[in-house]
Amino acid sequence: MSFLNRCVQAARSPFSLLGAVRTATKRAGGTVHNHGGSPGKRLGIKKFSDQYVIPGNIIVRQRGTLFHPGDHVKMGRDHTIYAVAPGVVRFYKEKWMRGERRYVGVVLERGEVLPRDEESRGRSRYCGLVNLNGEAPRTQNVVRTN
């Protein structure tokens, strides 16, 4: 083959200007076998501000203490915050060290705000055994005969 023939062939080739072209030496990749992992844990806020809760209702599911417990709520061992009294959920912030902490609390009446001003309003008390706003329970008359 003469030099002229090789130049003509090189000019016709689409890869002459690019140089060497790499071709695949392995098959195309397939799907990953163990992708996805475990299902989601359904974390987050379950009851928002101004929502009514009863004792035992979960308010926040979290990992770590993003929200801290306030009035009438407690924290479970997995940092879940739940209500211990019936009322309305309130979220608020308080100064803590150099920053702020976010708190979750339950107020007994819809108009209240947290943090509660205890000097002017007094302590918030809840006793599940006595209903101060309702009627007294009726007693049955028992007749004793000797």
From TrEMBL:
NCBIfam families associated with the record: L27
Any one GO BP annotation for this protein: translation
Pfam families per the UniProt record, alphabetical: Ribosomal_L27
Gene3D superfamilies hit by this protein: 2.40.50.100
Ribonucleoprotein listed as a keyword: yes
UniProtKB keywords: Ribonucleoprotein, Ribosomal protein
Family label: Belongs to the bacterial ribosomal protein bL27 family.
GO terms under cellular component: mitochondrial large ribosomal subunit
GO molecular function ontology, one term from the record: structural constituent of ribosome
Protein's recorded name: Large ribosomal subunit protein bL27m
Organism of provenance: Crucibulum laeve
